[in-house]
């Protein structure tokens, strides 16, 4: 399990992510009901659901793509419930999607580099023209971070290729490289093994293990590949029609009678 996060009062640990009583309604339909969960530093937390779309709606709310009807979302103790997706990303919350979202006409390297453009280079046009030392230093740092992310995700050999021509497995690694290049605090991974071959799943698992070993980044993933979730999650929350019916270690969840009934119904 992960180490304790920093605390607000010196005694109580503050999770990276703390979701409290989250609810999302669409008219009379309740997509997420009274959802609470936490993710700590270096911890992997998985979510799964045998039917319905509650888990993706949950991710949309956490990432800031959809405001919840009620409830609270805290990121490192900061209330971001009404904050934009951009604000949350700049606080270190990053997300990948079930359907890959890359810029197919750009190279793999440029796709990853884009994730750091929001920081700016310093000096504006003047800095570009006269190559001010601060500008050069920032650009060198960005390029170094991109090199590291590409290497970690096994993309160095295809860095100059157009992303649109890559396999599904490679595209997922491009998304992951883009998510980790700028020191994430929390990663939301939406069905990261979907459509992948066994070799790609093993490579993805190795990347996640390396990230968790650093002890600073937590992961929250939606995953139907049970062996992968068991191997890479400390805790699993099981949803049924947007409502949490079980939560605990993978072993505890696998033995839960309500989970068995939900998946066998």
Structural features, described:
The protein has 265 residues and is α/β, with parallel strands linked by helices. It folds into two domains: 173 residues, P-loop containing nucleotide triphosphate hydrolases (Rossmann fold), CATH 3.40.50.300; 83 residues, no CATH class. Helix content is 37%, strand content 23%. The strands form two sheets. It has a six-stranded mixed β-sheet with strand order 6-7-8-3-9-10, with helices on both faces. A hairpin with a 2-residue loop joins strand 4 and strand 5. Helix 5 crosses helix 6. The chain starts with 16 loop residues before the first strand and ends with a helix.
Strand-helix topology:
Elements: E1 17-26, E2 29-39, E3 44-48, H1 54-63, E4 70-75, E5 78-79, H2 85-90, E6 93-96, H3 108-113, H4 124-130, H5 133-152, H6 168-180, E7 186-190, H7 198-213, E8 218-222, H8 226-232, E9 235-240, E10 243-248, H9 250-254, H10 257-264
Parallel strand pairs: 3-8, 3-9, 6-7, 7-8
Antiparallel strand pairs: 1-2, 1-4, 4-5, 9-10
Give the helix tally.
Answer: 10
Whole-number total of structural domains: 2
How many strands?
Answer: 10
What's the architecture of the largest domain in CATH terms?
3-Layer(aba) Sandwich
Provide the descriptors you would attach to this structure in a database record.
single chain, 265 residues, alpha/beta, Rossmann fold, 2 domains, four-stranded antiparallel sheet, globular, disordered N terminus
């Amino acid at each position: 399990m992960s180490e304790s996060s920093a605390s607000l009062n010196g005694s109580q640990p503050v999770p990276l992510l703390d979701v409290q009583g989250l609810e999302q309604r669409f008219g009379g339909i309740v997509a997420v009901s009274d959802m609470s969960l936490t993710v700590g530093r270096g911890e992997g937390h998985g979510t799964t659901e045998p039917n319905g779309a509650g888990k993706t709606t949950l991710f949309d709310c956490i990432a800031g793509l959809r405001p919840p009807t009620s409830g609270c979302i805290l990121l490192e103790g900061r209330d971001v419930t009404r904050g934009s997706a951009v604000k949350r990303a700049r606080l270190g919350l990053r997300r990948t999607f079930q359907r890959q979202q890359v810029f197919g006409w750009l190279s793999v390297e440029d796709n990853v580099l884009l994730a750091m453009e929001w920081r700016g280079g310093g000096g504006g046009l003047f800095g570009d023209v006269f190559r001010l030392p601060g500008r050069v230093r920032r650009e060198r740092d960005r390029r170094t971070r991109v090199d590291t992310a590409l290497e970690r995700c096994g993309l160095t050999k295809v860095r100059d290729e157009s992303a649109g021509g890559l396999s599904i497995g490679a595209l997922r690694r491009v998304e992951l490289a883009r998510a980790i290049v700028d020191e994430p605090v929390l990663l939301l991974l939406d069905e990261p093994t979907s459509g992948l071959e066994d070799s790609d799943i093993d490579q993805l698992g190795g990347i996640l293990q390396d990230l968790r070993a650093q002890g600073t980044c937590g992961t929250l993933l939606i995953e139907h590949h049970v062996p992968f979730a068991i191997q890479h999650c400390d805790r699993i929350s099981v949803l049924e029609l947007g409502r949490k019916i079980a939560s605990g270690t993978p072993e505890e969840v696998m033995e839960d009678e309500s989970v068995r009934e939900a998946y066998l119904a």
